């Protein structure tokens, strides 16, 4: 017989008999610790996990329980991207974001309620979509580069003509410094109808070469908007201005998200009942500038709606249902986070 076996069994029995409310020095009994589950108050209320702030996919602390510090590092209650049992996995879209954006950029804050010209390199993911049989680009849409081969845009852009190419790093529709890439294939969401699932992917014939003025945007992987339900967001495009004149330059404007219930009511109040406002959509309206409201205008279809989190642009929406420029009702955007399960297998099939 082994002389140490009895001691070992006694030790195992002693450990198994210990009460569960063990006190750990330096740890509050009320606050969860790194790796523990925590409660996010929402809405919607859900379970998160305590993670170091730098490792949280959204990069922000969610509303809810406070987590303890790990050494000198802040630990936040982080919304899980994908929950597989007790292990929290980061979504493929977030992994790709972290790979391309190791260091957040330093975007300037935007002034609300106005249209401003975009400067080179400010939004390196914005693309101009050109269509077959339309050389003057009077019929055009926007798109967002999300990988070396794919761009995200709106499905309704292609109801009349297929796309021919996309131009990146173009501050104007005729910018000689823009790089043009031919489109090989259009992936339209199989559930698309005019009022819902208005989202599509453009697959290029060759990979885009990233540089200072050309690069992908991160996709929002949380079901909620970063930083809260009512936040300032940036919309951009080559659309029309409030006078209906078509812009030749890339402009940006600040809009504020509107809760979907309130948004739907605003449309009903003005007698518009043929729009979809639900879990698949976001609504946003700009601050009033003179007699008009900043918003996405016709020609900006498919273009990006972004939040800026820690200096990094985050794609939260795609311009879907347009409203007249300067209107007092919100614009409707396709909510990107609702379509990650559709986007990821197409864009990153081997991940």
Automatic annotation (TrEMBL):
Q: From the Swiss-Prot or TrEMBL record, state where the protein is found.
A: Secreted
Q: Which GO terms describe its biological process?
A: innate immune response; proteolysis
Q: Signal peptide span per the entry?
A: 1-17
Q: Name one GO molecular function term.
A: serine-type endopeptidase activity
GO CC annotation terms, alphabetical: extracellular region
Q: According to its UniProt record, which protein family does this protein belong to?
A: Belongs to the peptidase S1 family. CLIP subfamily.
Entry annotated with the keyword Transport: no
- Report keywords, A-Z: Disulfide bond, Glycoprotein, Hydrolase, Immunity, Innate immunity, Protease, Secreted, Serine protease, Signal
* Ranges for domain Peptidase S1: 111-348
What is the name listed in the Swiss-Prot or TrEMBL entry for this protein?
A: Putative clip-domain serine protease subfamily protein c
Q: What CDD domains does this protein map onto?
A: Tryp_SPc
Q: Name one Pfam family in it.
A: Trypsin
């Amino acid at each position: 017989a082994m002389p140490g076996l009895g001691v070992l069994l006694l030790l195992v029995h002693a450990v198994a008999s210990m009460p569960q409310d063990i006190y750990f020095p330096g740890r509050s009994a009320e606050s969860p610790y790194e790796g523990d589950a925590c409660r996010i108050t929402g809405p919607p209320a859900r379970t998160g996990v305590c993670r170091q702030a730098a490792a949280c996919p959204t990069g922000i602390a969610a509303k809810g329980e406070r987590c303890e510090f790990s050494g000198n590092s802040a630990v936040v209650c982080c919304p899980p991207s994908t929950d597989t049992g007790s292990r929290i996995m980061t979504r493929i879209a977030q992994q790709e974001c972290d790979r391309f954006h190791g260091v957040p950029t330093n975007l300037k804050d935007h002034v609300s309620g106005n249209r401003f010209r975009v400067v080179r390199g400010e939004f390196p993911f914005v693309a101009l979509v050109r269509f077959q049989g339309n050389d003057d680009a009077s019929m055009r849409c926007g798109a967002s580069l999300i990988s070396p081969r794919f761009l995200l845009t709106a499905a309704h852009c292609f109801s009349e003509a297929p796309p021919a190419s996309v131009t990146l790093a173009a501050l104007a529709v005729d910018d000689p410094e823009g790089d043009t890439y031919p489109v090989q294939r259009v992936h339209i969401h199989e559930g698309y109808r005019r009022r819902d699932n208005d989202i599509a992917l453009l697959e290029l014939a060759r990979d885009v070469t990233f540089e200072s003025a050309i690069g992908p945007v991160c996709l929002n992987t949380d079901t909620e908007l970063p930083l809260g339900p009512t936040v300032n967001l940036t919309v951009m495009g080559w659309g029309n201005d409030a006078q209906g004149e078509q812009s030749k330059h890339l402009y940006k404007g600040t809009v504020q998200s509107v809760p979907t219930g309130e948004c739907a009511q605003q449309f009903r109040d003005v007698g518009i009942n043929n729009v979809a406002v639900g879990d698949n959509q976001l609504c946003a309206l700009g601050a009033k500038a003179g007699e008009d409201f900043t918003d996405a205008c016709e020609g900006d279809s498919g273009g990006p709606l972004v939040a800026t989190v820690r200096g990094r642009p985050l794609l939260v929406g795609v311009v879907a249902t347009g409203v007249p420029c300067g209107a007092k009702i919100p614009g409707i955007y396709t909510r990107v986070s609702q379509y990650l399960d559709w986007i990821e297998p197409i864009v990153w099939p081997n991940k």
